[in-house]
Amino acid sequence: MKKSVWLWIIAFILTLLTAVYQRMTGPTYPISGKINIDGKVISYSLDRSHGGNEDHLIKIKTDEPKISGLLQWKRYKTNDEWKTDSLVYNDGALTGLLPHQPPAGKLMYKITLVKNEKPFLLNEGNPVVIRFKGDVPAFIIIPHVILMFLAMLLSTRTGLEFFNNKPNYKKLLYWTLGILLLGGMIFGPIMQKYAFGEYWTGFPYGIDLTDNKTLLAVIGWLIALVAFKKSAKPRFWILFASIFMFIIYLIPHSVLGSELDYNEMDRQQNKIEQSIE
Questions:
Q1: In whole angstroms, what is the distance from residue 114 CA to residue 24 CA?
Q2: pLDDT category, 204, cuts 50, 70, 90?
Q3: Which of 47, 55, 138, 268 is the most buried (most CB within 10 A)?
Q4: What does the mean pLDDT of the chain come to?
């Protein structure tokens, strides 16, 4: 098998592993676990992201009518008191609702199951933080995800070209930068607008790490492109851009993402109410 084919296979495997790692370590990946209640093991999955305009449904499968539950929640990073709602048993599951929040709004919530007046804390009693976002159309999110995966694949493959006896960078470099720009700098901001109401919340307007990661990756490949055109030995700059993008994309997805400041929102609301009075 030709070395080029092996390099594509290695690039695909590395990209796939990176995508899985990034997804599973991110702050929006559900928290899963099991709890033993009097010999009955109950599995649960607690969501940390909600898209759309509806309330968020909490659902714990129990198949045990004698088990009841409580849902406690409050707005994230506020001095709000915890609110408590009872979970409702229906068709083999305990269900409850978290009220819908504005885009980038977050709630903290805890779930306690109860049997014979004995409490059982899910997630060891630690609160789960869920972020709300707007509904992103499939015709935006699907191309964005595919393009970013391809950008990472091409970036990795272009870096691996370093190990070819006669490296041919031109097509790989242009395809990498072009797909990265299309997926990250065009579809990315459009998706951000649908989800959180802003096209860009990275530098210099904010600290959104997803936006900033994309920006850094683009800068890295622009440097590689300049080196390809101007430098006598561009291969090391191209390898640097590939490794640099690989490293920054190991940072979990949605870390330091868009976040609604409830305290500022309340202050603005109070000002409006006072002006009306």
A1: 30
A2: confident
A3: 47
A4: 91
